[in-house]
From TrEMBL:
InterPro entries: ASX_DEUBAD_dom. It comes from Trichoderma arundinaceum. Residues 1-93, 208-248 are annotated as: Disordered. Residues 75-203 form the ASX DEUBAD domain. This is ASX DEUBAD domain-containing protein. Residues 23-41 have a biased composition (Low complexity). Pfam families: ASXH. Residues 1-10 have a biased composition (Polar residues). Residues 13-22, 82-93, 208-217, 224-239 have a biased composition (Basic and acidic residues). Residues 64-81 have a biased composition (Basic residues).
Amino acid sequence: MSTPDSSSIHVASKSEHKKDEIPSSSPLSSLSGPSSPLTPLRPRRKVTATKRYASPSRDEVKSIPRRPKKKAAAAKRTPKKPKWDSENILKDPKSPLATANLRSILCNPMAWTALDQDEKTEILSLFPDKRHILDSDTEDARPNFASLMNDDSFRYDCAAYTDNIAQGRYDPDWLASAWSAHERRKAGDFDKYLIDKLEEDWGVEIPGEMKVRRAPPEEETGDDAAREQGGPRKRKLEDWMEMDELAA
C-alpha cells in the first residue's frame, strides 16, 4: 500500500487549522460560499427601463390653438316681395294660371267664401242669366257650381282665358294695339281688305248692293224717331255685325 506524502499531509493540516481560527461571529464567515444552506439569497429588484419620449420631428405640423370665432349678429332681413301678385299673375305669360285648371279653381267653394259681400255681389251681377245662381236676389245668393261644371260655355271660356294669358294677350302693350286695331276696324279701314279676301277665298264676286258702305260720322246720328224705326244707327250696327262675321 502507498502512504500519503508528508507534504500533502502538512498542507491539509494547515487548512484545517485556519478554519478553526476564524470565529463564527466574524464578517468573513459570510464569505464561506453561496452554496451554504444557511445563507439566504437576496431577491433581485426588478428595474424597469425609463420611458423616453421622442422629440417631434421638424416636418410634423404643430396645431396652434385658435380662439373661438364670435358669432356675427344676425342681419335684419327685409320681407321678400312675392313673385306673383294680383296684377302680374293675370298678365305674365309665365303665370301659373297659364297652365292651371281655371275651371276647377273657380268651382271650388273656397274660392267663393274667400270673397267679401261686395265682391260676391259684383260677380253675380256679371252672370248672363240666373240659371247658374242659387237663391238669387237674396243675401245667400251664390253660384251653382254643379251646373257650371257641366256648362260647355263656361268650360270654353276658362280654357280661352288661360290660353290668352299664355299668349301674352293681357299685356298692356298688346291690349293697346288690339284696341287701336278695333277702332280702325270700326272706322272701315279693313273693309276693302275683307271683301277682297272673301272674293278670293270663295272665287265669287260680291254684288255692289251687298257690300258694306259706311256712312260718315255726321250721318250716323238722327232723331229719336229714326232710331226707334231702325234708322241709320241701326243700319250702322248691322254693318258692324256683318263685318264681324266676315272677319271671323
